[in-house]
# Entry
Amino acid sequence: MSPVLRINNLETILHTEAMPVRAVDGLTLQIMRGETFALLGESGCGKSMTALSVMRLLPDAGEIIGGSVRLGEEDLLLLPETAMRSIRGKRISMIFQEPMLSLNPVMTVADQIGEVLQRHFNLHGGVARKRIQEILDQVGIPDPSRRMEEYPFQFSGGMKQRMMIAMALAGEPELLIADEPTTALDVTIQAQVLDLMRSLQQRDGMTILLITHDLGVAAEIAHRVGIMYAGEIVETAPRDEFFRGPAHPYSRKLLASLPGRDRRRQGLRLAAISGNVPPLSREFSGCRFADRCDHAWELCHEVAPGWTSLAGEQQVRCHLFNQNPGSRVPQRQFED
Ligand code: SF4
Ligand code: MG
# Structure
C-alpha cells in the first residue's frame, strides 16, 4: 500500500489579539490508499484545523508556518492557489457536520452536482444528468430523477448529509475528508450514513480521513486511529489494537471513561476527564498531558516524549514506553 496523504511536521497557528495559538504543532501522519483513518480528540485539540490546513481553507486568522502536506508526490503547501482550486473537490473532497456549509440553498441538486461534473470532467446535458442520477442512487437517495430537481431545504437532515456526500463523490476524489460527518444526526440516521461511507469506501477503495470526537464512530468504520491532544498526535494504532489495548495514558483515560465493556458501540462520546487541555499559546517544555496525567514524574515536565513503536503497528508518544521499545509493557506499570 502506498500513502495517499503524507503530513510531515505540520505547524499551523491562529493569530489572536493576545498571542498566536499553535493549533497544530508538529503533526506527522500518513494515510494509506484505501484506508479509513480516524483522527480522534476532544474539541479544540486541532483536528479540524489539521483538515483545513490540508485543504488550505483556513480562516483568515490561520496560517501554516511549517511542514509539508503531500498528496501523492505533490506538496500542497507549495502550490499556487489556482492549482489548489483544481485539487479541491476533485482530488480531495471534504464533508462537514453541517451540510449547509457545502450546499447552496438556492440551487437544485442537479445544478450543484452538475457544476462539479462540468468543472472537473467537462460533462454537460444528458450525459451529466445520467451521471447525477447514478451518484444520487449510489448514496441511497430514492427516486433520483425527481429529487435532483429539488432544493436542499426539501431534504431531511439525513438526506442532506447524503447529498453532501454525493457532491463530494462527484469529483471522484482520491481522498475524502469527513469532519464530524454524523455528529448532528440522530443515532439511526448516523448508523445509515456510516454504513454508506463504509460501503463506498469498500467498493471504490476510497481513502478517508475521518475527524471525530466520537470513539464509537471511529470503532465503527476506521482501520486505524490517531489520538490527538493539544495540537499533536500522541498515539496511532490499528483500530482493534487500540480498542483492545490503548497505550498512552490519555487514550487509556478516554477509553476507561466509557460505560460498559462493549466500547465498540455508537454514540460513545469522549467523556470529560479531569483537568483542562493546556492553552495552546503556552510554551511547552515537557509532555503536554503532564498536568492531567496520573503517571507523570519529573522527566515528563522537563522533556517532550518522542515516539516509541510498540508491538504491531501501535506507536505512542510517552516516556513510560520509550525505555522499553518493542514491548507492550510500559517501563512504569499502570495501576489503572
Ligand atoms: Fe504521562 Fe509522562 Fe507519559 Fe506524558 S510522558 S503521558 S506525563 S507518563
Ligand atoms: Mg472540529
